[in-house]
Amino acid sequence: MDAISDPSVEVVVVMSSAQVGKSEALNNALGFYADCDPCPIMMLQPTIKMGEDYSKDRIAPMIRDTPALRPKFGDARSRDSGNTLLHKQFPGGHLTIAGAESPASLASRPIRVLLADEVDRYPDSAGTEGDPVKLAEKRTTTFWNRKIILTSTPTVKGFSRIEAAFLETDQRYYHVPCPCCGHAHRLTWANVVWGKGTPADGDPEKAVFKCPSCSGHFTDTQKDLAVRKGRWVATAPFKRKAGFHLSELYSPWKRLRETVAEFLESKGNPERMRVWVNTALGETYEADGDSLDESDLEARAEKYAAEVPARVLFLTVGADTQPDRIEAECIGWGAGEESWSIEYAVFHGDPDIGEGQNGSPWQAFTDWIRKKRKHESGLDMDVSCTCLDTGGHNTQSVYNYVKRHRGDRIFGIKGYSGWDRPIIGQVTRKRSGKKIGRPIDLYPVGADNAKYTVVTRLRIAEPGPGYCHFPTGRNPEWFQQLASEKLVTEYKKGRAVRAWVPIPGRRNEALDVRGYGTAALLLANPQFDKLALRMKQQIAAMAPKTRKPEPEEEPLFGETEVSEGATEAGDETPAPVKDSRKNPVRRRRGGFIRSW
Predict the structure, then answer these.
(1) For residue 555, which of 128, 223, 402, 561 is within the disulfide window of CB 3.0 to 4.6 Å?
(2) Contact 127/117 with Cβ under 8 angstroms?
(3) Which 8-state DSSP code applies to residue 366?
(4) 199 has which bridge partners?
């Protein structure tokens, strides 16, 4: 914040972990300029929707609760106040909130101060007009005293906007004095230790910081005191650009034991480790390798004890259409999204031939989806969700099929490229015919991220969360198809872009279908703990109940039962009947009672 108000600094870059105050610093900068140095300001968010949410959840409360700002902004409830959700006026300037995916919101508006939040979440291009950060920076050209502030948690090494911007600055790191010897140093993960022996065997509760100079240990409390005495140290020449890096190791809101525990949970899982490195250390993640080895995958094949192994709780299907066939995979999912490939099937025939006609593959595909699959516990399991690709040469036929089979929980999907697209996007409505027909729900699938998730999980070497199991006897070509694409770096418009490139001579249907099955899991969003409880109850209800033999009737409280009409002394002479009612011992609900 000192650098933001420093006239000698033109660009401020903050690359940090999550939840260490980046957005709050942007809010303070906005309040400072609105109150003390009014000018045109733009706040750039990844999407317009995120901008609207930020305006409501962060900016509006700040204006409402700050006496210096409240009178400068008009009442948002008044139509002529100049205070709307995405545009707020104040004396001497205004605030515009824009989305990085919308070129219209970035154009035709000169600004002096640019506040760009989470720049690594921006799309590669704003529509067809290029990098949204560069487009926004062009709006500041006419101001000699412009200010550009870029903040973000980083992503993948070599493709991170914030990393590239940080490397152009003076690269400042925060140094704290050691409580033991006073040596000033950075808090890095390499200097975190816990327990005895190897780190994997240690106890996170014993986590401490280690001084690189004297090897002395200090705790969270001592660290918090040292942070107050710390200072920023630049590691590169200053050229009007100030850069700051900060990890959650400095945060007063995160205890070291929590960070260590999260590291141990993520260890061995590249997908989780990437998130931990980005959000905890504030560093870019560098994946090991860019392609898979099919021989390593095939060597992991195992013999299942049943068609559906014991730990499977949920079944999905991913399916893809080709001009002469349908290919599909049934995937079993367990806790932590650990997966088991249950069955891979190819249905030959032209998908454009209607269901029920000779040569059509649709009926066999339908029967295969509806088939009951035997769980290791003895239960019969159904496929809970199917994602069927509508792209390619058979789009209309797939639309018609999805429309007819709504009850089978079959959903139409369409793959889109772009790293800014989530694996499952917001549903749209498509007509199954040109003029008539009920619309179908079509779900967009981020193909790049879906493949990245699949490939990352295929790299996990030990069973556990995210691990992929394969059955023995699977065709070796199937494993080649799983490893049919690799991630490479291409340069478009001067910027590095990741792209999936097919390996020559290999088909990729198995990789695509596995991605669609993963999308089906995210679409269904099962709660595995509840599924496990329900399956346990079903197994208990299915177990045969053996009836316990009824014990012989015995008198209560140790009494000797006498025959009807006999005396207690053993006299066999029948006694005179004094009452017409009898008082026998009868069995009721597992016990014995006397009843008239």
Answers:
(1) 561
(2) no
(3) H
(4) none
Give pLDDT, residue 490: 64
Question: Can you give the pLDDT at residue 116?
Answer: 94
Contact 493, 508 (CB under 8 A): no
Q: Please tell me the predicted confidence (pLDDT) of residue 73.
A: 86
Superfamily of domain 11-171+236-246: P-loop containing nucleotide triphosphate hydrolases (3.40.50.300)
Distance from C-alpha of 33 to C-alpha of 93, rounded to nearest angstrom: 9
Are the folds of 11-171+236-246 and 294-475+508-541 the same? Answer: no
Residue 582: how many CB atoms within 10 A of its CB?
9
- The DSSP-derived string for 425-480 is ---EEE-SSSSSS--EEEEEEEHHHHHHHHHHHHT--SSSTT-EE-BTT--HHHHH
What does the angle CA 503 – CA 509 – CA 514 come to, to the nearest 5 degrees?
110
Residue 71 φ/ψ, nearest 5 degrees: -75, -15
Cβ(268)–Cβ(462) under 8 Å?
A: yes
**Token pair belonging to 582:** 């009898």
Q: Which residues are within 8 A (CB) of 453 and not within 5 positions of it... i.e. 6 or more apart?
A: 271, 423, 515, 518
CA gap 537, 389 in Å, rounded = 35
Counting every residue, how long is the chain?
596
From the options 3.30.420, 2.30.30, 2.60.40, 4.10.320, give the CATH code of 294-475+508-541: 3.30.420
How many CA atoms lie within 13 Å of 8's alpha carbon, on the beta-carbon side? 4
The DSSP bridge partners found for residue 388 are 319, 412
**pLDDT confidence of residue 581:** 52
Residue entry with tokens 């205070």: 83
User: In 3D, which of 106, 127, 103, 122 has the Cα closest to residue 161?
Assistant: 122
| Structure token pair of residue 299 | 């060597």
One-letter amino acid of 255: R
Q: Are strands 217-218 and 208-210 parallel, antiparallel or unpaired?
A: antiparallel
Determine the Cα–Cα distance for residues 337 and 354; give it in Å rounded to an integer: 36
Q: Which residues pair with residue 285 across a beta bridge?
A: 156
Sole residue written with tokens 């190897």: 198
Positive or negative, the CA dihedral 287, 289, 292, 293 is: negative
Helix axes of 447-458 and 509-524: crossing angle, nearest 10 degrees: 100
Domain ranges of the chain: 11-171+236-246, 294-475+508-541, 550-596
Cα 182 versus chain centre, distance:
42
Mean pLDDT of successive 10-residue segments in the chain (596 residues)?
A: 94 94 92 94 92 92 92 69 82 92 79 94 79 89 94 87 94 95 93 67 84 92 94 94 96 92 84 89 75 85 94 95 94 94 94 88 94 93 94 88 89 87 82 55 90 90 91 92 82 67 86 94 93 91 61 44 42 47 51 51
DSSP three-state, residue 528:
helix
Q: In what order do the strands lie in the sheet with 217-218?
A: 192-193, 208-210, 217-218
Q: How far apart are CA 117 and CA 495, in angstroms?
A: 20
Nearest in space to 369 (alpha carbons), one of 404, 420, 414: 404
Instruction: Please state the pTM of the whole predicted model.
Output: 0.65
Gap between the Cα atoms of 392 and 398, Å rounded: 10
Question: Which pLDDT belongs to residue 550?
Answer: 52
